[in-house]
Automatic annotation (TrEMBL):
PANTHER family: HTH-TYPE TRANSCRIPTIONAL REGULATOR BETI, HTH-TYPE TRANSCRIPTIONAL REGULATOR RUTR. Residues 17-77 form the HTH tetR-type domain. InterPro entries: Homeodomain-like_sf, HTH-type_TetR-like_transc_reg, HTH_TetR. Pfam families: TetR_N (PF00440). This is TetR/AcrR family transcriptional regulator. It comes from Amycolatopsis thermalba.
């Protein structure tokens, strides 16, 4: 698939770069306000205080402009995510506290960036390039979540620790995404108290990871 950067013409002057950055900022602001791409390049230009000609000097279409804005935001969120998970665990932290901390770290990242992630996830349903890049970002978050708890593997009694951690992330992400209306309408969001949801998720994940799975019954022939 052709990269986003290949579709963006590099500026010849610093002023052109700054104008394009303003256009990308305007795209994000409009997406957050409208939760869709129901705006024109003229709307972007007006919001950014630049000419439509300056935008067309860098990209060929509104779709390419949106994809460029998406790539920039994924890079920003990725940097933020890596910094958050790089924080050292507190001394003397119990495994239960570690579960709470890791879930809380992922939850705060999603909650803080939900206004931007929501509309992009809706666009991913019809834009393969946004879907691919968003999928890679999701996979990176999953791996960070799993790696953070895998450091305490000796305290995980589930017979398949890696699968159990990945499943825990899937459940946690699904619950949080629904609450934050990521990839869905806002009608399904905000059900239940945020802190209570995090506490319930932590208890559920801890129980799942520390309780051995029941042995599978052999099938009778």
């Amino acid at each position: 698939m052709e990269s986003v950067n290949a579709r963006v013409r590099e500026p010849k002057q610093e002023r052109s770069r700054l104008s394009f950055d303003k256009a990308l900022d305007a795209v994000i602001a409009l997406l957050v306000e409208r939760r869709s791409d129901s705006f024109t390049l003229a709307d972007v230009a007006q919001r950014a205080g630049v000419s439509t000609g300056s935008i067309y000097g860098r990209v060929s279409s509104k779709d390419d402009l949106i994809r460029t804005a998406h790539a920039r935001e994924m890079e920003r969120i990725g940097d933020e995510q890596r910094a958050a998970f790089a924080e050292p665990a507190p001394a003397g932290e119990t495994f239960g506290e570690a579960v709470e901390r890791v879930i809380g770290t992922a939850a705060e990242l999603l909650r803080r960036n939900a206004p931007v992630l929501g509309p992009f996830m809706l666009l991913a349903n019809t834009d393969a390039q946004i879907a691919e890049l968003g999928g890679a970002a999701h996979a990176e978050l999953r791996e960070a979540f799993v790696a953070a708890l895998a450091e305490r593997a000796d305290e995980i009694s589930h017979p398949e620790p890696r699968r159990a951690l990945e499943w825990s992330f899937t459940v946690v992400y699904s619950v949080l995404a629904r609450w934050l209306a990521l990839g869905s309408t806002q009608q399904a969001s905000g059900e239940g108290e945020w802190s209570g949801i995090l506490a319930d998720l932590a208890r559920m994940v801890l129980a799942f990871l520390t309780q051995p799975a029941a042995p599978r019954k052999s099938r009778r022939r």
